[in-house]
What we know:
Layout: H1 2-21, H2 34-66, H3 76-88, H4 104-115, H5 120-147, H6 150-164, H7 180-183, H8 186-195, E1 203-204, E2 208-209, H9 212-226, H10 229-251, H11 255-280, H12 284-303, H13 313-321, H14 331-351, H15 359-372, H16 383-386, H17 388-419, H18 425-458, H19 461-470, H20 476-479, H21 482-492, E3 501-503, H22 508-513, H23 532-545, E4 549-553, H24 560-565, H25 569-578, E5 579-584, E6 588-593, E7 605-606, E8 615-617, E9 626-637, E10 648-655, E11 664-666, E12 672-679, E13 686-694, E14 700-710, H26 718-728, H27 733-736
Parallel strand pairs: 3-4
Antiparallel strand pairs: 1-2, 4-6, 5-6, 7-14, 8-13, 9-12, 9-14, 10-11, 10-13
Helix pairs in contact: 2-5, 2-6, 2-17, 2-18, 2-19, 3-4, 3-5, 4-5, 5-6, 5-8, 5-17, 6-17, 6-18, 8-9, 8-15, 9-10, 9-11, 10-11, 10-15, 11-12, 14-17, 15-17, 17-18
Amino acid sequence: MSSEGAPSSRRTSLAARARRAGVPFRGPIVETGRWTRRIVFVAFVAAVAFLGVQAVTSVFQALDHATRFSGYALDGAFQLYNPLRRLADGQLPGRDFPFFHGVGMPWIHYPLYVVFGQNIFASEMSRWLLSPVMFAISGGVFLRALLGTWTRAVIGLAVMTAMSNTVPQLNLVDPGNSMIGIRSMTVLFIAAAMLWPVRRQRFAFGFLQANTPLLIAYALLGVSLALGSEQGVAAIGAFLLVRFFQNVRRLRWGWRPFAQSAVDALAAVSSVLVVLTILTGGSALSALRYALVDIPADQGWVFGSIPNVAPTADALVWDLIGGPVLDLRAMVPGFLLTGLVAVVLVVIARRMRAIPPVAVPVVIMLFLAGLATLAALLGYISLMTQLAPFGRLATAVAVGAGTAIVITAMARTEAAIRSGRRFAPALVARPVAAAAIIVAGVFFVATSVAARTPVLQEIPKREVIAAAMQGPTQDDYEVAGPGFRGAMDAILSRIPPGADIWATYSSLFNSQRDVFVPAPGGEDYIIHALGAERREAYENAFDSVKPEAVITTNPNYTIYEEWLWGRYPQFYATLFQDYTLTVETGSHLLWLRNEVPAPRDAPTVQADVQGDGTFSLPGNNTDRVQYYELTVQYVASGGDLPIVNRLPRFYLDVSGSGLALSGEILPPDETSWSITVPVLPGSAGVSVSPYIGGVARFASLDVTGAEYRQLDVAPENDRLMLLNYCSWNRTNDLCTG
């Protein structure tokens, strides 16, 4: 009896070791079967080939963007390059300068930045290489933890990549405008840690867990916040919520699950503080305040107002359905449909026992983390980007569950056929379901190939390789494309050597001169001066530093130039009065400081405010623009309901002026605010009236007073007002001459 049982025992031991080691074609999903293994092997080879082509495409994309640099002058490339320059200068994020998307983002790119030469070429190479690499690693690790072997993970990763890089407008493999791919990746590592088998359970006091995967998950919570503030908070909240219910299920109702959950929360807080302390040189609390207080406080009125979309029911429905009518091809409906499909596939996979039971709470955690980022809706509506993390996580879940279903169905069908089992509905349903999922996967891969092949074909490969060989040793002017070179020639030639350059969006002008914006908080972008204290310090510093040169954006290049005027009014009032517009390029404007500051002795005039808050400013019968600094006293209230009271937007409609936006924003937490109102020649008068946008059911806005004074502005600066006004009103008589 013992001799007969020995081979069976040996096979069981080998199978167990194979499962632990992740040997291809073995494990909890795939039963033995010759044809199943052959099909999986063919799929694996095809996946490797597909991913190889994608990798080659990503490398050439990086080379193409890094050489002949012609990137967008705002956000995008410079959102990373400026912090990398500061890191190389010995500065630290969170201590010496803020980073809008998490203090760990510059650090994770910094090694490649150093390797490639510490210039714009190096920054772009690191940005365009790291995003696809981390997409592959995070997706691969998660799928390996879910599916049991690297072979299955590679197959799933190929489909996941195909589903994520087909649409150019929101490619989660490439970095995009705000590197959303890297910012949303850490939660997949946390999910992998939760899925990883616990080989040795350890307990403190008999019930507090202390196993290796859990400790790794704790550490990753801090990393998640460092690599993406919103995504990190969402991941931590989702993890702790799911852990609480896991603790209740394991320990039953009582004080013990609450004790374990308290330990989980303490571990999360400790992880965040340790990680941020290391990355910021001891300034963790400062970094947390910026990420969790300053940014959210200004999210609504700064970013969630005209010309951006404030949260309303109509705007939300429009984004949800993809336009005026339902369009399943649109990004947001596609994300939601992917989530629905993922849920269905997880249910099927669990009924087939193709994925382990622990996958269910992990999937719930991923979905909660993806949806929690919708808290940004309190500020503004842009579901295509706000739901992108959910779309990525739902894609990973759908692909993982789908891969498990297909391989398991094939293996069990083959086993049934080989055993000579009689016909049963399941024998037909399994291969049909597997075939449907395979067709979907092949469709996505084919669509991705069709979309990405032209990208690779259009890149002049020999040219970019030759340019890349020189890139690490070149300065930014040599790396720049014709557009940036022309702008640098026009602007830098007018700025004296050694002069301070204050740019509202720091770019190649500052890097070529090897200077930083001398803002006290280290803000390279004016929009990063968020929170009342930081904004006031930024504006006061500009007034006291008195830089020789200021570079702003051309209103014809971006609709957000005037948008800045109402959010940083003191900065722009000083700019208009004490500087002269000297150079105009397609993307930027250069202002040089006047030798003598403009007088501030114009009398202040009280406006006649009517009962409904309306009032007027004088017209303009001269032949040039007249400028008024308008100061409004008001009381704005969003109501008594927390959260809901942050949804209204408070505006001034300034009709008959040279302003182009349909409303000038008033901060809800202030009681007095100033804006510069240009009045164009021929204006019969300016009418100002308050109104409320967004969700305004419980909101009120009372204008209690208004005053204005005329500003002394150089005639050359009138050009800016015409550029701004005509960018929106091209058919006006002033703009057609």
